[in-house]
Write a structure and sequence with these properties.
Blueprint: H1 2-43, E1 48-56, E2 59-69, E3 74-79, E4 85-88, E5 93-96, H2 98-104, H3 106-117, E6 123-128, H4 129-138, E7 142-146, E8 150-154, E9 157-161, E10 164-168, H5 170-178, H6 188-206, H7 214-221, E11 225-226, H8 230-240, E12 251-252, E13 255-260, E14 263-268, H9 273-286, E15 299-304, H10 311-321, E16 325-331, E17 340-343, H11 348-356, E18 363-365, E19 382-386, H12 399-412
Parallel strand pairs: 1-6, 3-12, 15-16, 15-19, 17-18
Antiparallel strand pairs: 1-2, 2-3, 4-5, 6-11, 7-10, 8-9, 13-14, 17-19
Helix pairs in contact: 1-8, 2-3, 4-5, 5-6
């Protein structure tokens, strides 16, 4: 009887050991899988995509999608206005996308952002205004450029900011983030917020490796909320803080202003397809040999060669959403059948990227001012002349041209 009890006890002990080993192995596999997800994005050639949100009392005041290519340290940043209007299923109504963050939280909000952008955004980082201010002081201030001095009353607060390249402390960066000026140009307030966010990551990089020491990182990480933690969060912050923000040209997603239920909402153009194209094309350039095209803002002149009223203006809005500077719009001297892009700087790789926005394949080069049909502006990089083959969004290929193109593709194969 004693022998049977001893055998039973040994069997139970053996089973317990196996169970403990299995549970431990399962936990380790789960941890490894989670870690590999982050490491895969940080150590490979993939584009690292992060949702960045600065909020104040549960309301997002700055929303950005950051796309970062670690191999070249180049990045693209898309500002998402909180008042972009969508039919939001989780709220069962049409409302601003920012309402999802306030009412449903960051996870549901990230899902809506992914739908809007048409891409997967694996990671998110959020920081409230108070923590942003604390981080600023912790990092010794943030360096930003303010084109002209600010001296205004804003929500019963006197905002006073110097001009030039200045270092702002926590209180001043808070003012910089939240103040609104009636004289601001379209998107200027959003650009300020993006400047502050980029300045934060530059300061983190400037304070490394000390800021990533065990003691200091625990304080740094405590000011962020993310869907990764510990060493994964450290890797994420270390990686994106290395981006070359000096060569980054922030872009702003836009739409048509609509008043819906007494709310001023931005309705995305072409049912959101334009936003998806902006992001997709920019990310494609980021990982290509032509990524230098994102390093500065190119100046465009857009001329309407059709009898469609307002075509140059609406096209200028399209190009501005791609972060181009449209310095002039007008009418061409003569009607034009075929849309053409005039490259005035002799840079064919950039010209192709500019033309691709509207699927234009007709590119001509002239580095000298030409008469009449080539436009009148000499201080522009490219002149775009819209022809009758342009439907308001992109160039429509003629059937015979498309047939020739398809046959050429077959010959190549």
């Amino acid at each position: 009887m004693k022998i049977k009890l001893m055998d039973t006890g040994k069997n139970i002990l053996f089973l317990l050991v196996i169970l403990i080993v299995l549970i431990t192995s399962f936990v380790l596999v789960l941890i490894k899988m989670q870690r590999d997800t982050v490491q895969d994005y940080l150590s490979s050639d993939k584009i690292l995509k992060v949702l960045l949100v600065v909020e104040d009392k549960g309301v997002p005041i700055s929303i950005s999608i950051l796309a970062y290519y670690p191999e070249t340290k180049r990045a693209a940043m898309f500002d998402v206005p909180a008042n972009i209007g969508l039919i939001i299923q989780s709220l069962n109504r049409t409302d601003a996308i920012g309402a999802v963050y306030t009412e449903k939280g960051i996870s549901s909000f990230k899902a809506e952002i992914e739908k809007l952008a048409g891409i997967s955004v694996p990671f998110y980082l959020t920081c409230n205004l108070e923590n942003f201010s604390m981080l600023t002081d912790m990092l010794g201030g943030l360096s930003v450029f303010i084109p002209s001095p600010v001296d205004i009353e804003n929500d019963n607060t006197h905002v006073l900011l110097p001009s030039g390249s200045v270092s702002l402390d926590g209180d001043k960066i808070r003012d910089f983030l939240v103040y609104e000026d009636d004289l601001d140009a379209e998107g200027e307030s959003a650009a300020r917020k993006q400047k502050a966010v980029l300045a934060l990551f530059r300061a983190i990089n400037d304070n490394s490796p000390e800021i990533f020491s065990k003691e200091r990182f625990s304080v740094l990480s405590g000011n962020f909320k993310s869907n990764v933690a510990g060493s994964d969060l450290k890797n994420l912050l270390e990686s994106i803080s290395k981006m070359d923000s000096e060569r980054l040209v922030p872009q702003r997603l836009t739409g048509a202003v609509r008043i819906i239920e007494d709310k001023r909402l931005l309705t995305p153009f072409r049912e959101g397809q334009q936003i998806k194209e902006i992001i997709r094309q920019t990310i494609a350039v980021l990982a290509s040999d032509d990524s230098s095209a994102l390093e500065r803002v190119y100046a465009l002149e857009i001329l309407n060669g059709t009898n469609v009223q307002g075509l140059a203006k609406s096209t200028s809005e399209l190009y501005q959403s791609f972060a181009y500077d449209v310095v002039s719009i007008g009418n061409s001297e003569n009607p034009v059948a075929e849309t053409v892009l005039i490259d005035r700087i002799g840079n064919p790789s950039v010209a192709k990227i500019v033309a691709k926005v509207i699927r234009c394949k007709n590119i001509q080069t002239t580095q000298l001012p030409a008469e009449g049909e080539y436009g009148s502006e000499t201080n522009v990089d490219f002149t775009l002349i819209l022809g009758s083959d342009f439907n308001g969004f992109f160039v429509v290929e003629k059937k015979e041209d498309k047939k020739d193109s398809d046959e050429n593709d077959k010959d190549k194969n």
